[in-house]
Amino acid sequence: MVAARDRAVARQGSSNQSLQGKAIDTQCQLDDAAAKFLNTAAARLGWSGRSIHRCLKVARTIADLAGAQAVQLTHVAEAVQYRRALKAH
User: What is the DSSP letter of 70?
Assistant: First the structure.
């Protein structure tokens, strides 16, 4: 976990949690498949833009934990699952 935080700080100068607005989009550039998945999930779940950004920050952290350079579909899918699980409680 420390290594993931160190990756984030080295890449963007702050933790993923601290990202705001455009910085989230810059650090979480998704390929077409991941973006489509996220947009579909957000529409079905009735998420706001803020909810989407929260999910993206979690996906970026999951990617960092996995040692991945880019946020991939699997990271986004895992983040959506966490967000849905939290909402259910």
Answer: S
Q: Give the HSE-up count for residue 45: Cα atoms under 13 Å, Cβ half-sphere.
A: 20
What's the pLDDT tens digit per position in 1-23?
899 999 999 999 999 999 999 99
Cβ-contact 59, 78 below 8 angstroms: yes
pTM (2 d.p.): 0.91
Rounded CA separation 2/6 (Å): 6
Q: Which amino acid is at 62?
A: I
- Confirm if 14 and 22 have CB atoms less than 8 A apart: no
Which amino acid is present at 47?
W
Which residues are CB-contacts of 41 (< 8 A; sequence separation ≥ 6)? 47, 80
